[in-house]
Amino acid sequence: MAEADESCAVFHFEKPTLRIGNPMQIETFRASPARERLRGFIVALNAAVQSIPTNAPVPRSEAIDSVVELLDDIESIVDDCPPIENPCRFGNKAFKTVHERLTEEAENLLVKMLPGNLSSARIELMPYLLDAFGNPIRIDYGSGHELAFVAFLCCCALIGVFTAEDFQALVVVVFDKYLKLVRKIQTRYQQEPAGSHGVWGLDDHQFLCYVWGSSQLLHNADGVTPADIASENAPREYAEKYMFFDAIRYIYTVKSGPFFEHSKYLYDISSVPEWRKVNSGLLKMFDAEVSVPHPSQKADVWVLCCYTHALNTDDTHPPRTLTFTLTLTRAHTRIPARLLDGGNSLTSTATLVLRVKCHVHVS
Question: pLDDT at position 292, please?
Answer without folding.
Answer: 62
